[in-house]
Amino acid sequence: MNSTTKQELDPVTFEVLKNSFITSVDQMAEQMLRTCYSFVIYNRDFSNGLHDADGNCVAQGNADIAVHVGTLHYTCKDVIRAFEGDMYPGDVYAINDPYAGGTHFSDVRLIRPIFDEEVLIGFSQSNGHWSDLGGSVPGSFNVTAKEMFGEAVRITPIRLFHKGKFCSDVANMIAANTRDPASIIGDIHSQAQATQVAERELQRLVGKYGRDQVTQGMNEVQDYVERSVRQRILDLPDGTWEAVDYIDRDPGAGEGMIPIHIKMTIKGDQITYDFEGSHPTIASIYNSGHGATFSAVVAGMKTFFPDLPMNSGFYRMVEIKSPKNSVVSAEWPIAVTGFLMPFEKIMNAIFEMWSKIMPERAIACAFNLEYLLAGGNDLRKPEKPIYMFYEWLPGGWGGRNGKDGSDVTTACFGTGLMSQPSEGNERVNPTRADEFQILQDSPGPGRWRGGAGVIKASTLLEADNTVMSYICDRERAVVWGVEGGLPSMPHGLSVVHADTGEEKWLGSVFSNYPIKSGDKFTRPTAGGGGYGDPMDRDPEHVLSDVIDEYVSVERAETDYGVVIDVIDREMLEFEIDQAATDKARAHIRANRVAWARTDPAEVSQMYVDGKINEMDAVRRYAVILDWGTGELMPNSTQQFRESFEGRSIAHWS
Question: What is the top EC class of this enzyme, as a single word (predicted)?
Answer without folding.
Answer: hydrolase
